[in-house]
Amino acid sequence: MKTPDSFERKSQLEMSGDSAVQLLRFFAQHSIDVIVDGGWSVDALLGEQTRRHNDLDIALQHKDVPKLRALLEECGYREVPRGDSWECNFVLGDDAGHEVDLHSYTFDAEGKHVFGVAYPFESLTGSGVIQGYPVRCITVDWLIKFHSGYPLDEDDYHDVAALCQHFGIALPADFERFTSEGAE
To answer: Which residues 6+ apart lie within 8 Å of 84 measured at CB?
Structure first.
């Protein structure tokens, strides 16, 4: 089995664009369809990396979790303990600091969510690029909607402001405190 043995090694926690693309190609080589979520999804929609990323967030069908977990474990990834982990949302990391945050879901034949992370079907239909590599990702509207309901930080503001500016969308009210505090 071919493993991604040339992942870029970093002394600090970071998922570089090269490492993200290597992982995504590795998943595709093993017929695992993933949708990029999180910060890399934002940058995929924007067509360029706009900030440093700690991990690669992916959404995938729950039926593919055992295969993906086994492939990553063969590459030295192990579960990263977190208080909110469960069978449909957990993080795998390697000794070099690469982390993959997995979010799994199941839809029925009509596209209705029936298990796992409650992604709306239409949220998984975006497309973008990471370092020229085409990826499926979360749609713009849903990425903005997903940035609510929890304590927002500077990265959240950066991501949503960049999406809003690029796609001509009004900045949601949840982010007004960042503009009033002088954030860019």
So the answer is: none
For the packed helices 65-74 and 17-29, what is the interaxial angle rounded to 10 degrees? Answer: 120
Domain boundaries, the chain: 17-139, 147-184
Give the β-pairing of 56-61 and 34-37: antiparallel
> Whole-structure pTM over 0.70, yes or no?
yes
Contact between residue 153 and residue 172 where contact means Cβ atoms under 8 Å apart: no
Q: Which residues on neighbouring strands pair with residue 133, listed in sequence order? A: 130
Fold of 17-139: Beta Polymerase; domain 2 (3.30.460)
Query: How far is it, in rounded angstroms, from Cα 158 to Cα 178?
Result: 10
Question: What six digits make up the tokens of 46?
Answer: 């924007």
Residue 184's CB is within 10 A of a number of other CB atoms, namely 8
| pLDDT tens digits, one per residue of 31-64 | 999 999 999 999 999 999 999 999 999 999 999 9
Return all residues near 42 (Cβ < 8 A) that are at least 6 apart: 50, 143, 159, 162, 163
DSSP code for 4: -
